[in-house]
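From the pipeline queue, job 12 of 40. The input is one protein chain; the requested action is below.

Action: predict structure.
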Amino acid sequence: MAGKRERSERLGQRADDARAHERALVWAEPYSGDVVGLDSATGTVRFRHPVGACFFPSWAAPAAAGDVVYVPRFDGALYAVRAGDGGVLWQIYLGEERHIGPALPAAIGAQTTCEWEVPAGAPLYAPPAIAADGTVLVGSGEGFLYALGEAR
């Protein structure tokens, strides 16, 4: 905490003026399809939202950068959610190279129950990594490594 306080004071802010998302612990539940946010100081659930299709299981942990949490799901999509409220900022389907894009395949998007097997494409098994320049690196079950960043 001393390092955080020193850094905050140098920026002209008090350390106890932390933004709400800095107190959030966000994770993707492996057996419900929900993304859950807790207040790390109180343990209170701040939000719980379904994100993506529900599959058993979803092993990959999310990664955070600033106020954005990147959530890889078993449905083959990577979701960017706001740390403060869990709202989805964007999604990209990476489960099948020939169908990469913002929409899930119809067979996945039409799913209404939790399932054990993905009807199309491949899951995202591993957590994403975030490079120093903000590029999000994520591998797919098809064996590809994707680098997602701002259009330049």
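Job complete. The helical segments are 2-10, 106-109.
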